[in-house]
């Protein structure tokens, strides 16, 4: 009897488990016929792959947008280039060799491509799906064409990701100043401040005679060539309008921001300082300057958007005047607290540095505006900024020689008020893509900012290392922050290390 009871209980438990499984199993669904270009590209491991539903996990079609335009005669002949963002919003593209039929498609054609039976292979450096004919492609609509804005460093670091996608490289220039008559024909190397990339233009194309501009936006499709074991990217513009001249004024600033100490180890009062480099000889008694800092803690007054910009004053902005002293071209000079110590109390004196203005900001109000403060530049939280101006008259309309921000929070821009920026490696007064005015930090594309160092009170020094080309009058290597920890025994030579700070290129 006991044995029978055990058997009955076993059957009841088994039945319950089976019923539970039946209740929780997904009832099933149909596999989408569409696969992303991202997933297709990932199938290629160096040798040709024949595509079929089995290898495509049950799918067999692409739903993509045409980006190629053969009317300009500058794209690889016979290649239809399409892109999509179906997987995780990643933009990816692929080439389809169609021969003369490729020219019958135009940018914005939304197409369905049956890739069953296609062969995925890299030909002449370009990943392609071969064995596709026009009867396997259906035009279904006209749609907007998505353009990815990318700097050259990202493209070089990820050539496979950007291949066969439409990319805008903004603020591209040459390592020389183009003269009248120089044109785009051939391989031309452009630099956008983040790296250099070849723009390839066929001599027989409509684009061959386009002028070389001092600075321009380059819209085009990224392709690769195989050199050794590496993919080396280059860009091909499609039509003449893919080259857009930028006419914003990019002048050489007389002084640039190269570093600062905002959170020394110990008290901040009168121990914070900013390092600059002169790009020409400056006699401050004849050519005075002003340095203004801004803090934007929520409680800092006046609250709200800065109605007078850098001249708002109170606890929001603090001004130093630079009216005496001399800085030779290519040398550092300093502005900040009166203690002249490298890392707050009981640290190495750097009084022998070229201090143009050393001022007790914790006991004195700023020159013309700014309330005395124990914390000139914030240690955490909302944004702080540094700007240097030629002249000592600073108001809401003043445009700095150079400017830099850390952090993004606070009441920074709105209702026509904000902190004006200048054209440098981080900011643009005119949006380089839309060509709309964006005069303030956090307006338009002016969102670049350095991040805070953590933990606080550790003793970081903020190096800003880049390359400014004096002949071209622009940044050919955008500044990058490097923040090593200093000690109480650190020396002036450490923060003026030529390997770490900005370089002037003649």
Task: Describe the structure in your own words.
With 506 residues, the protein is mainly beta. It has three domains: 106 residues, OB fold (Dihydrolipoamide Acetyltransferase, E2P) (Beta Barrel), CATH 2.40.50; 98 residues, OB fold (Dihydrolipoamide Acetyltransferase, E2P), CATH 2.40.50; 258 residues, no CATH class. 8% of the residues lie in helices and 31% in strands. The strands form six sheets. Strands 9, 10, 11, 12, 13, 14 and 15 form a seven-stranded mixed sheet that branches. It is elongated. The protein starts with a helix and ends with a strand. The N terminus is likely disordered. This is DUF5689 domain-containing protein. It comes from Sphingobacterium allocomposti.
How many domains would you count in the coordinates? 3
Strand pairing plus helix content: what structural class? mainly beta
Number of helices: 5
State the oligomer. Answer: single chain
Helix content: under 10%
Main sheet record: 7 strands, mixed
The tally of beta strands, per DSSP, is 28
Uncertain regions spanning at least 5 consecutive residues: 1-27
Distance between the termini: 101 Å
- Our Rg estimate from Cα atoms comes to 30 Å
The fraction of residues in strands falls at 25-35%
Shape: elongated
Mean pLDDT: 93
């Amino acid at each position: 009897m006991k044995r029978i009871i055990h058997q009955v209980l076993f059957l009841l438990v088994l039945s319950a488990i089976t019923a539970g499984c039946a209740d929780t199993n997904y009832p099933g669904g149909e596999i989408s016929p569409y696969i992303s270009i991202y997933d297709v590209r990932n199938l290629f491991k160096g040798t040709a792959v024949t595509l079929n539903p089995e290898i495509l996990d049950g799918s067999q079609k692409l739903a993509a947008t045409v980006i190629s335009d053969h009317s300009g005669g500058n794209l690889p002949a016979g290649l239809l280039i399409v892109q999509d963002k179906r997987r995780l919003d990643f933009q990816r593209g692929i080439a389809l060799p169609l021969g003369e039929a490729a020219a019958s498609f135009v940018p914005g054609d939304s197409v369905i491509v049956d890739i069953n039976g296609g062969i995925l292979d890299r030909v002449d450096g370009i990943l392609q799906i071969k064995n596709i004919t026009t009867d396997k492609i259906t035009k279904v609509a006209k749609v907007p064409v998505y353009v990815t804005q990318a700097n050259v460093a990202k493209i070089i670091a990820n050539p496979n990701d950007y291949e066969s996608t439409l990319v805008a490289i903004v603020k591209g220039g040459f390592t020389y100043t183009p003269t009248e008559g120089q044109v785009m024909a051939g391989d031309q190397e452009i630099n956008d401040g983040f790296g250099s990339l070849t723009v390839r233009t066929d001599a027989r194309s409509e684009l061959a005679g386009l002028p070389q501009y001092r600075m321009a936006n380059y819209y085009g499709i990224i392709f690769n060539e195989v050199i050794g074991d590496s993919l080396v990217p280059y860009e091909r513009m499609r039509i003449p309008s893919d080259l857009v001249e930028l006419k914003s004024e990019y002048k050489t600033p007389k002084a640039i921001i190269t570093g600062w100490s905002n959170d020394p180890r110990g008290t901040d009062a009168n121990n914070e300082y900013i390092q600059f480099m002169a790009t020409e000889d400056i006699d401050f008694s004849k050519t005075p300057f002003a340095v203004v800092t801004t803090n934007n803690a929520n409680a800092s007054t006046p609250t709200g958007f800065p109605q007078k910009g850098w001249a708002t004053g109170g606890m929001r902005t603090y001004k130093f005047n630079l009216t005496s002293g001399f800085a030779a071209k290519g040398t550092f000079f300093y502005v900040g607290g009166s203690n002249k110590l490298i890392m707050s109390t009981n640290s190495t004196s750097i009084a022998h540095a070229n201090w143009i203005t050393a001022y007790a900001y914790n006991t004195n109000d700023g020159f013309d505006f700014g309330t005395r403060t124990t914390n000139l530049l914030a240690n955490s939280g909302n944004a702080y900024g540094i700007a240097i101006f030629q002249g000592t008259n600073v108001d809401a309309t003043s445009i700095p020689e150079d400017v830099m921000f850390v952090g993004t929070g606070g009441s920074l821009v709105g209702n026509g008020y904000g902190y004006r920026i200048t054209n440098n490696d981080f900011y643009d007064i005119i949006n380089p893509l839309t060509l709309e005015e964006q005069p303030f930090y956090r307006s338009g594309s002016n969102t670049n900012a350095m991040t805070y160092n953590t933990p606080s009170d550790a003793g970081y020094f903020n190096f800003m290392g880049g390359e400014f080309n004096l002949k071209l009058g622009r940044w050919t290597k955008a500044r990058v922050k490097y923040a090593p920890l200093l000690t109480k025994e650190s020396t002036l030579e450490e923060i003026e290390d030529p390997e770490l700070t900005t370089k002037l290129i003649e």
